Amino acid sequence: MTIWTFFDYVSPAGNDLIDKWVDRLSVSDRSDLETLLRILSRQKTWAANDFKWLSGKKYQGLGEIRFRSQQGTPLRLIGTKTDTPNHFVFLIGCSHRGTKYDPADALDMAVKHRKAVLNGAVVCKYGDT
Q1: Residue 128: inside a domain
Q2: pTM
Q3: pLDDT tens digit string along 56-71?
Q4: What does the alpha-carbon distance between residue 26 and residue 28 come to, in Å, rounded to a whole number?
Q5: How many domains does the chain have?
């Protein structure tokens, strides 16, 4: 039974940024991500190795779904909950090593996208584009 529904942030230009990021992953990494999201969608709470809320006042309300590429690179889908129960919106995809994100401004972009989503920006159901 699915508990969570996932959505993607859509830029003002109409681009599904998450879909574009996922398309750049290898086939095996995409498969691993899809498996993880299928598992998470059926769990009320998410384990710490799969999900972590970001710390710091600036990043309040942002969390990251965590997984590794087949080459061992830590990959992240940064997102936020919405006012609708059990809806989670992916805001940006990135890689993360230590304190460095790629793209370097991933967290700042996530903050900007979250603000847009909370103000009514367009989202689409994950995997529907």
Answers
A1: no
A2: 0.94
A3: 999 999 999 999 999 9
A4: 5
A5: 1
